[in-house]
What we know:
By secondary structure, the chain is an alpha/beta fold. It is built from six helices and eleven strands. The protein has helices at 15-24, 72-83, 109-119, 139-153, 223-228, 244-253, and strands spanning 2-7, 28-35, 54-56, 64-68, 90-97, 124-130, 163-170, 179-182, 193-199, 204-209, 231-238. Strand 9 and strand 10 form a beta hairpin. Helix 1 (15-24) crosses helix 4 and helix 2 packs parallel to helix 3. It is globular.
Amino acid sequence: MANILLVNDDGIDSPGIRSLILELKGLGQIWVAAPSAQRSAASHGITVRRGMAVRQVPVEGTKCAWSIGGKPADCIKMAVVQLLNEPMDLLISGINEGPNLGTDTLYSGTVAGAVEGAFNDIPAMAVSLVREKAPWDFGAAAKITAELAGRYLSGQLHIPPMSILNVNVPDLPREKLQGLRATRLGIRKYSDYYHLLEETPEEKVYHLRGSAIPGDGIDLDEDANAVAKGYVSISPISVDRTDYQLLAELRQKL
Length: 254
């Protein structure tokens, strides 16, 4: 029986991770190592200057679940190094409350959880629901994730070492999705601004706000455009961030 490890960045009580448990439990044993609280946009940060609380918690449908006082990457590192006594066959990070498209993946705790799995030789995918705010309906995204997990575990889908799949599911009923589409990461830009929340003579407190600037909507090989047209976007991400073309140029010039 397969062992499937779940993590997220929205916290162990998030409905996104609970919906995954319901859909995946027929594929194997489910293990959870997730943050104790909301950790969105934590990127690949880890906790090194303070201790982390780890608490085993009862979560229906799981073999074992831990609530961890750290970031998503912390959770996977802790699970692999300290908590798990069995090898994992697949890691799924999500389902995230909101998209992780294009360059958003650099900030994403959801993607970082999957990448930490790849660091530790666990095939991994990150899954996000493309919706900007509550209410969240993870039903279709959870079913798509279970389908992809089943295809991987049966050998129909390949996730090579040191790579992950970044999956973004449009906020649509299952029957209205246009299908699966392999995509590349686009450049995600925002109308960023900082809203002044508080001001004293000593300091000012700002809150980052803004919204995503839509792409041209034409190139469906780009992840954001694909989901805008109703496709489930699946983007392969390599953990190796070396720019090999620039490396070759540097070797010629240095």
